[in-house]
Design goal:
Elements (H helix, E strand, L loop, with lengths): L1 E4 L2 H14 L10 H10 L2 E9 L2 E13 L3 E6 L13 H18 L3 E6 L9 E2 L2 E7 L4 H7 L2 H12 L2 E6 L4 H15 L6 H11 L3 E8 L2 E11 L2 E9 L8 H15 L4 E8 L3 H7 L4 E4 L1 E5 L17 H8 L3 H12 L4
Parallel strand pairs: 4-5, 11-12
Antiparallel strand pairs: 1-2, 2-3, 3-4, 5-14, 6-14, 7-12, 7-13, 8-9, 9-10, 10-11
Helix pairs in contact: 2-7, 4-8, 5-8
Length: 343
């Protein structure tokens, strides 16, 4: 069993087969993310695999990030919901962790962060400040509806009375999604990803890409970017225009996606991760999800404390408030240049 830095052109078929069948893998372990991230953000990607008897026994995608402020570090996986080691084999897991450390030391990385969907038994320091919320939808739309609170059902009906209309499309509607997303990110005080990030995902993932829109008239007022992941629908980015919050377009968007997914044979809708106890976490809980505590492991050469590069960090509160006051064109101009350094 030999962990090695792989050239995906030589092992891509084996990697793809492993990710499609391994219980611990998901679409974020797909090798196509390497192409997206290198193409859009120009970060170097390192894909580690454990090979055993000419088959892949475990994988670990890592992205090398560098900035003047934070130095060099490795993350699995930035910009998306999950990442980390994918294997059910304890020996493979240990080999991948050791290979990651060797890579980090060789690059002079200040830290490594693995964003796991579940504990993997690493002897690294870890945090459990994030939670995944996954809605089982195999029960069908009717039962999903009856399980919602009467208050939430009333909000959805009000959105319908106010003229909200739901649409589902593919990458052709990325521009509509992005207009809502960019405004929403500015309102949250967070730099926005460049539009070409989503366009690149649409090109590389093709028919697995789904764009969900809620319109009032001709204008999109709530939107989500989704990815088909077997029997699971991943929703890494969900957003709405706060100017229409009183008409509950966000609630209508969530319900419409759950209803659509349940009617098309999906078993789960993954609403993405949230910070434990946040408003976003509380909002998602009303859809009756299964809550899955996530484990983020980190390694540093000298056992240092891992920097918290998130909007929840109190050190960044002033920056968040200032960003919220920026005119939208300026936020859209400068945001993509900053966000490439924020995992």
């Amino acid at each position: 069993m030999t962990p090695q830095l792989v050239t995906l052109d030589h092992i891509e078929g084996l990697w793809r087969d492993f990710v499609a069948t391994a219980p611990g893998a998901c679409i974020y372990h797909d090798a196509r993310w390497r192409d997206v991230i290198e193409e859009v953000f120009r970060h170097r990607c390192h894909y580690l695999a454990v090979l055993e008897d000419d088959r892949v026994a475990g994988v670990l995608p890592l992205v090398e990030m560098r900035s003047l402020l934070f130095g060099r570090f490795l993350v699995s996986l930035p910009f998306v919901t999950y990442g980390g080691i994918a294997t059910e084999d304890g020996r493979a897991r240990h080999a991948l962790a050791e290979a990651a450390i060797c890579l980090g030391r060789g690059l002079g990385a200040r830290w490594i962060e693995l964003r796991q969907r579940s504990p993997v038994g690493l002897e690294w320091p870890s945090r459990q400040h994030k939670i995944a919320l996954v809605v089982p939808v195999a029960v069908g739309p009717a039962e999903l509806w009856t399980k919602l609170s009467s208050r939430l059902r009333g909000k959805i009906r009000k959105a319908q009375r106010c003229g909200a209309a739901f649409e589902v499309d593919g990458a052709a509607r990325i521009s509509d999604f992005y207009r809502v997303f960019a405004r929403n990110m500015r309102d949250l005080g967070t730099p926005v990803y460049p539009r070409r990030f989503f366009e690149s995902i649409g090109r590389h993932f093709g028919q697995e890409t789904r764009v969900f829109l809620v319109r009032r008239g001709a204008n999109a007022v709530a939107a989500a970017f989704g990815l088909e992941d077997g029997e699971r629908l991943q929703l890494p980015w969900i957003c709405s225009d706060y100017r229409h919050a009183g008409d509950y377009v966000n609630e209508f968007l969530y319900w419409s996606i759950l209803e659509w997914a349940a009617g098309r044979g999906y078993r789960h809708v993954d609403l993405g991760r949230s910070t434990v106890g946040s408003g976003n976490h509380r909002f998602k809980k009303q859809w009756n999800p299964v809550e899955i505590p996530l484990v983020w492991y980190h390694w540093t050469p000298e056992g240092d404390v891992l920097p918290q590069l998130s909007p929840e960090n109190p050190r960044f509160r002033l920056a968040v408030r200032l960003w919220q006051k920026l005119p939208l064109p300026l936020a859209n101009l400068f945001g993509p240049h900053l966000v490439r350094f924020l995992p």
